[in-house]
Design goal:
The complex is a heterodimer of chains A (126) and B (761). Helices cover 43% and strands 21% of the residues of chain A. Chain A is of the alpha/beta class. Chain B has 761 residues and is an alpha/beta fold. In chain B, helix 19 links the parallel strand 24 and strand 25. The longest helix of chain B has 66 residues. Chain B is elongated. Classes of the chains: A alpha/beta (126), B alpha/beta (761).
Chain lengths: 126, 761
């Protein structure tokens, strides 16, 4: 059972992602803030995190920084969905955070394929 | 140049050639380039394992911004190495100024630690064209001579002298009229003698002319480099030379004027560009968010319509619909903001009944309130007098507030709209039982474009530009709006609008300080709003804060001239707050403490400029602001100028302000005298007319200029009577023509003696 944690302060987007990525072998956990996401991840380390950047109180990047600092989540696959930023930042974010950046608005099919790809690459968590 | 500082210019040069320009990403102080040059960073240059690759983001004269995967605390000593050099690269020492998070990793600002420049070798005292020496007797004679004899006369005199010499000599030698043979010889001899005499005369004048040429060359150099061009202290040799000096000086002044104007224009342009880029950033983000949802749900409906049941499909379509509405409203708001900002909005000010407007506006929302099970109440004070305002715009304000309230209130909550009269103002309030708004966001919520934002955390999503528009409308009516809220309990938006709209063109009571930036900090939002209103009506730019943290954020980001604060704030003790205010490294703002109790002396000792005891009247407030802003700053001078028809006061004041001085405008000589008495004034600039009958008033009490105050009188022509008067009173007279405000600036702030100086003519 693959676990995906999704975080974005915009409710329609998070709900939409839940519908978009649903599959019988996936458990999608929806959260609406950085704190909630970290709590959910702390409960059980997921196989993938999908996060927004601009959120009140704790930005997506802070969440990622916290996760990368912990050994359990150091190599967690992450997808960043952001309404700001340009194409140049995509490769750079890959190097800096080990995350893939998708600009909003994204092509839903592309996101779905990316998620499939990332999940199939993850070794079974020990 | 030392080896260490050689690499930094090399990076800069590389950046200029290879970097891509990104106008919106750089801050003003940095070169606006994304560079992408790979360099290496280490905290321990001795350990080869301890370095990691970083990417250059931008370069400035003193340091570099780098993208790093590792985080470093501010103040950490680091070394940077440029790995594109072919020769052995050296580590450049520096330290971390700041570290912030970005999409490409951590953005580190590194400041280079250049070694101190070696002391410049003492140059020998240079030639006479620099310092004017006291004229010796010889040079006085030379000058007298040069004043009376022109170049042509020189030659004639020389020639005549040689001919005469020749005749006398020949007569002595021969005792009679010379024979042709001797004559030719003597002619040759006399030519030689004449040439010699002419040459000697020529040498004498050439020295004088050479000195003037040197002075002229120096002046031209000064003018081309934008410095003040000074003619030499000695009076010019000829009228032509004197005219040349004055033309060069005028040229210099004109060039500097143009440079000043260009600098002001550039500043204005940069400010506008910054605001525009803020708008674009916010807009692009606010538009992309609803577009994401629309695209997502539309795609799912198109691809997998069969997988969803009717209810789910309907839900998706509803979301698409509401997000589209949100986008539409954003576009409308943007246009409205544009109209309000450019003052093109048409205002239809009529006297009408406020109760009617409120009731009809709120009735529109009854259906929405019912569908959410929210109780919507209207409480209008009976027998309200009519209000002078634009009814449509007021409806817009109310609609905005009520729709927000309804949006954020849970079902079973309440939204209450109340209107009552308080003195000369109408108080309109919209209260909800929603989640409440944090104190630190109370001022941000009304000000979306020009406000500071932490670029990675968003403010309240979905509020849109509505509150900014509301604020603009309220302020245009001469009122103010503030917010009171308790997180978890609800929020109350309160608008105060005067019964009668104040006239637009009321002159400011603080004319010298129009445009200055003030931050008003108080835990009571109503008081902060009232103080802000008074200051705004007098032409100052005001921001508010309601906590110590928010106040410090304003100070960190902005160009603040004055802080008016209470000491009792919810997140800092009085002593803590004062310490933080006084200890910031770049403290160039004045502080007024506005509190119930406190001791002016102890506060003054800590560095507070003025203490205002509550409750305070409008007059006291304005006087305090005048006093605080008028205080002598460490760098700048306080200058009083007297209103006059010829001098362009606005331009003169802006020249002073740009140089860090504080100009103050006085409407009359009495007012100028008062200002001189109250503050430590460095200079008073008077128009020529002041030299007339009122001059005697200036040198006697209560004007009593102290020894340190310069008086500069701007005259169109500095003639005998002006000079005499100036000499008697110790004032400096400056020749002034329209458009030459810069000469007044220089005369005012130039360090120097108070003896009358005049420009050579």
């Amino acid at each position: 059972m693959k676990r995906i944690v999704v975080v974005d302060d915009e409710h329609p987007i998070v709900e939409g992602l839940r519908y978009l990525l649903r599959a019988p072998d996936r458990d999608i956990v929806v959260t609406y803030s950085g704190d909630e996401a970290l709590k959910a991840i702390h409960e059980q380390v997921p196989d993938l995190l999908i996060t927004d950047v601009m959120m009140p109180h704790m930005s997506g990047l802070e969440v990622i920084a916290t996760l990368r600092a912990a050994s359990a989540t150091k190599h967690l696959p992450i997808i960043i969905l952001t309404a700001k930023g340009r194409a140049q930042d995509t490769a750079a974010a890959q190097d800096a955070w080990g995350a893939t950046v998708m600009a909003k608005p994204f092509q839903p099919a592309k996101l779905r394929n990316l998620v499939d790809q990332l999940l199939s690459e993850t070794p079974v968590a020990v | 140049m030392t080896e260490v500082s050689r690499t930094a210019p090399a990076i800069l040069q590389f950046a200029r050639k290879e970097g891509t320009k990104d106008v919106f990403s750089g801050k003003r102080a940095y070169a606006r380039y994304h560079i992408g040059v790979s360099t290496e960073l280490t905290t321990d240059p001795a350990n080869p394992e301890a370095s990691w690759p970083v990417v250059t983001h931008n370069v400035s004269g003193a340091g570099v911004g780098l993208w790093s995967t590792e985080r470093l605390a501010a103040g950490t000593a680091v070394h940077v190495r440029d790995i594109t050099e072919d020769s052995t690269p050296t580590w450049l020492p520096g330290h971390v100024q700041h570290c912030s998070m970005g999409i490409r990793g951590y953005l580190l600002g590194i400041c280079y630690d250049f070694p101190a420049e070696p002391d410049p070798v003492e140059e020998p005292v240079c030639d006479e064209s620099d310092a004017p020496k006291r004229p010796s007797l010889q040079s006085k004679l030379r000058i007298t001579r040069s004043n009376t004899i022109t170049a042509q006369t020189r030659h004639i005199v020389g020639g005549a002298a040689s001919a005469l010499t020749a005749y006398i000599v020949s007569h002595q030698i021969t005792g009679q009229m010379p024979s042709p043979g001797y004559f030719i010889l003597l002619a040759l001899l006399s030519t030689l003698v004449g040439a010699l005499v002419g040459y000697l005369f020529g040498c004498l004048y050439a020295r004088v002319e050479r000195r003037h040429l040197r002075a002229l060359r120096q002046m031209i150099r000064d003018v081309s480099e934008g410095r003040t061009a000074h003619p030499p202290a000695t009076i010019a040799a000829t009228r032509d030379l004197a005219a040349l000096y004055s033309s060069l000086r005028d040229l210099g002044a004109r060039l500097r004027l143009r440079k000043e104007d260009e600098r002001l224009q550039r500043q204005k342009l940069e400010d506008i560009t910054q605001v525009k880029s803020n708008i674009l950033a916010i807009v692009s983000h606010d538009m992309r968010t609803p577009l994401t949802s629309i695209l997502l749900y539309a795609q799912m409906l198109l691809d997998e319509q069969g997988d969803f049941d009717t209810a789910e499909c309907r839900g998706f379509l509803e979301i698409i619909h509401s997000e589209c509405t949100r986008l539409a409203r954003l576009v409308d708001d943007l246009l409205e903001v544009q109209r309000l900002e450019s003052d093109r909005a048409s205002w239809d000010i009529q006297t009408h009944d406020l109760t009617e407007t409120v009731r009809s506006c709120v009735s529109v929302f009854e259906a929405m309130a019912n569908s959410k099970d929210i109780t919507l109440r209207v409480d209008c004070q009976p027998d309200l007098p009519p209000i002078e305002a634009d009814a449509d715009k007021l409806s817009q304000v109310l609609s905005n507030l009520v729709s927000n309230a309804l949006k954020y209130t849970e079902p079973d909550g309440t939204v209450e709209v109340a209107v009552h009269l308080q003195g000369d103002d109408f108080i309109l309030s919209v209260a909800d039982s929603g989640p409440g708004i944090e104190r630190d966001q109370w001022d941000q919520i009304f000000d979306r474009f020009t406000q500071i934002r932490d670029l990675n955390t968003s403010d309240i999503a979905g509020v849109g530009l509505g509150l900014y528009i509301v604020r603009k409308i309220v302020e245009r009516h001469g009122g103010c709006i503030w917010l009171n809220s308790e997180v978890g309990q609800g929020s109350e938006f309160i608008v105060s609008i005067p019964k009668v709209r104040p006239p637009d063109s009321k002159p400011s009571r603080l004319p010298a300080f129009v445009g200055r930036k003030v931050v008003v900090c108080d835990s009571d939002p109503e008081l902060a709003a009232m103080v802000s209103l008074v200051l705004r009506r007098n032409g100052l730019e005001v921001r508010t804060a309601h906590s110590a943290n928010r106040l410090m954020t304003h100070l960190d980001h902005g160009d603040v001239d004055l802080v008016i604060t209470d000491v009792l704030l919810p997140d800092a003790s009085g002593a803590e707050l004062l310490e933080r205010l006084m200890s910031t490294t770049r403290k160039n703002y004045r502080v007024i403490v506005h509190s119930y109790d406190g001791d002016a002396d102890t506060l003054g000792a800590k560095g507070i400029d003025v203490f205002l005891r509550r409750p305070v009247s409008q007059d006291d407030l304005i006087a305090a602001v005048q006093k605080a802003l008028g205080k002598r700053s460490d760098e700048g001078h306080n200058i009083v100028t007297l209103q006059d028809g010829v001098i362009d006061m606005e331009r003169l004041h802006s020249y002073f302000v740009v140089r860090g001085h504080t100009p103050m405008l006085a409407e009359s000589l009495e007012e100028a005298a008062q200002l001189v008495q109250e503050y430590a004034i460095d200079c008073v600039i008077l128009p020529e007319t002041a030299l007339d009958h009122e001059w005697s008033e200036l040198s006697s009490p209560p004007f009593s200029l102290n020894a340190h105050t310069r008086v500069v009188v701007a005259c169109e022509f500095v003639g005998q009577p002006q000079q005499e008067l100036a000499g008697a009173t110790g004032a400096t007279t400056v020749t002034f023509h329209h458009g030459q405000e810069l000469t007044l600036v220089e005369a005012a702030v130039a360090p120097g003696a108070s003896v009358p100086q005049e420009c050579a003519l």
